Predict the 3D structure of the following.
Amino acid sequence: MIHLENVSASYELPTGGRRTVFESLDLRVEPGEMVYLIGPSGCGKSTLLKLLYMEIKPETGRVMVDDFFSNQIKDRDIPFLRRKLGIVFQDFQLLPDRNVAENVAFTLYAQGHGIREARRKALETLAKVGLSYKRKNMPHELSGGEQQRVCIARAIVHEPRILLADEPTGNLDPAVATGIVEQLVTLNQQGMTILIATHNYAHVKQFPARTIAFFEGKLREIDPALIEKIRTP
């Protein structure tokens, strides 16, 4: 489902030159897996996710997502890749001038679905995340946890094969954050492949799954039961 082969990435510094984020990464995620990607801020978690939805390309190596390859894909085909992905961001990124149902339906409008079908699927998906009763509310009328559940609904309304979550609980209170992770676990139990980038080790221990940590620009698989003993640089 996801395969990184000998992947390296860096970014340009304002003063010139480049800073290496990581080098020679290898990673495989099988269909139906739930995987945590952990490590401190700035270690490369978000960069790795950007490689998966191909906002950026690797400097060396190859990224495979489903049947798309970073060394072969053309720019015009990237939207087709992203139709197979759902993406949940830390900062919500909801459209402030549209209500909850329209925010969820927007993904389907962008893919060419008709208005009636898009609205029907949006309401069905809001029911899955327990927010049908908020369908007419505007984003600013929602709590942080509710906004993140809308983001999850928007990410899954088109029934993607893979869900990428980039620090999905970073801006939420602990109790609310736990509910969001429970939602992601439920989606995984229903068969969705999920990769969660997080630095919240408590959730990794509470909802154990395959866990991969960044250590000095490399990836290392660790036991989630021992997460409290792990200290990434």
Summary: The helical segments are 45-52, 78-82, 100-110, 115-128, 144-156, 174-189, 201-206. Residues 206 and 225 are 9 Å apart (CA to CA). DSSP finds seven helices and ten strands in the chain. The longest strand covers residues 18-29.
